[in-house]
Design a protein that fits this description.
Length: 187
């Protein structure tokens, strides 16, 4: 969906703020931008709050990936430096490294085989912090009465667990709600 649960916002932004304080952040990739909520919040956290309000003053590169063009609004074009209109599996081999990669409520839309491949590649593309969020309850991955917004990409294909993620990319730290993070260096 173009939205994700609001309960994750605090955890995601706290992780990003923490990394910014500890080692600085020059680049962020937002996978599955949807409505653009995290792009907007990240831009505020990384640039606007430091009095860099105008786009020409921004110093943080924030890129986004969104495969469903109907979700794109003028906000996306303003907030993101580069916006890829593609599914992650089609563009991942063309991406450069990012300090932080966030993938909020996207993983459940990939089957285990593809999701495993994508996670391994994202782990390699992440310099500092990989943030993931996905539903953990069986009822949340079953399609409910068709696909929202006539978007077949919204179908939940499988359920993931912290153990699944740890088996693929190594230990992750669980935060409040359904947010996990993998630090790429000792914090």
């Amino acid at each position: 969906m173009p939205v994700s649960h609001q309960k994750n916002i605090y955890s995601v932004l706290a992780l990003v703020d923490d990394m910014q304080k500890k080692s600085g952040v020059e680049s962020i990739l937002d996978i599955g931008t949807g409505f653009g909520k995290y792009g907007l919040l990240l831009r505020e956290r990384m640039d606007v709050r430091f009095l860099r309000y105008h786009k020409e003053d921004w110093v943080t590169r924030i890129d986004g990936i969104e495969p469903f063009k109907e979700y794109i609004t003028p906000v996306h074009k303003h907030i993101y430096d580069t916006l890829y209109l593609s599914q992650i599996e089609y563009i991942i081999n063309q991406l450069t490294n990012y300090d932080i990669i966030i993938m909020i409520d996207v993983l459940e839309h990939l089957d285990k085989e593809l999701g495993t491949e994508v996670l391994k590649k994202l782990d390699n593309l992440t310099n500092k912090l990989l943030i993931l969020s996905f539903p953990i309850h069986p009822g949340s991955y079953k399609p409910r009465g068709g696909t929202p917004w006539d978007n077949k990409l919204e179908i939940h294909k499988c359920l993931w667990s912290e153990a699944d993620i740890s088996d693929i990319i190594g230990p992750v730290k669980h935060f409040k709600s359904t947010v996990w993070a993998k630090y790429k260096f000792d914090k």
